């Protein structure tokens, strides 16, 4: 499993377009872009990784208020066992007319033997 797959599954009920990396289609009034940020191993006393920690950033773009969508995303993430590591308002983009808000998440995966 990967965090990108799990995020798409968790957020698909929102009826908001989601893409990975960059939004390549004509941008609607609201959309989400997911960007992978890091993959790390959690070390144990034998120096072998036991857990793969994957992190991603969810960027929310909205022509109007982003608050309701942000709250829905946070609830879906928490009920889908993601760890929210940061939330931040990025700002209003004058050139595009979108409000931009980020939610950073992590998920822990057991190492497959």
**What sequence of helices (H) and strands (E) makes up the elements?**
HEEEHEE
Q: Tell me about the biggest sheet?
A: 5 strands, mixed
Query: Domains counted in the coordinates: how many?
Result: 1
CATH-derived architecture: 2-Layer Sandwich
Please work out how many helical segments DSSP would assign: 2
What strand order characterises the main sheet? 1-2-3-5-4
Shape: elongated
Structural class estimated from helices and strands: alpha+beta
pLDDT averaged over residues: 92
pLDDT < 50 runs, ≥5 residues: none
CATH class: Alpha Beta
Q: Tell me the number of strands.
A: 5
C-alpha Rg (nearest Å): 15 Å
Q: Which fold name is given in CATH as the topology?
A: STM4215-like
Q: Give the terminus-to-terminus CA distance.
A: 14 Å
Describe this structure in words.
With 113 residues, the protein is α+β, with helices and mostly antiparallel strands. 19% of the residues lie in helices and 49% in strands. It is built from 2 helices and 5 strands. Strand 4 (83-93) and strand 5 form a beta hairpin. The chain is elongated and about 50 Å long. 19% of the residues are buried.
């Amino acid at each position: 499993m990967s965090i990108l797959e799990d995020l798409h599954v968790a957020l698909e009920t929102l009826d908001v377009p989601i893409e990975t990396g960059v939004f390549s289609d004509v941008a609607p009034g609201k959309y989400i872009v997911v960007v992978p940020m890091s993959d790390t191993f959690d070390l144990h006393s034998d120096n072998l990784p036991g857990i793969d920690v994957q992190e991603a950033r969810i960027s929310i773009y909205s022509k109007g208020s982003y608050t309701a969508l942000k709250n829905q995303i946070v609830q879906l993430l928490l009920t889908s066992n993601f760890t929210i590591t940061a939330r931040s308002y990025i700002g209003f983009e004058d050139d595009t007319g979108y409000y931009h808000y980020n939610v950073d998440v992590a998920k822990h995966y057991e190492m497959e033997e």
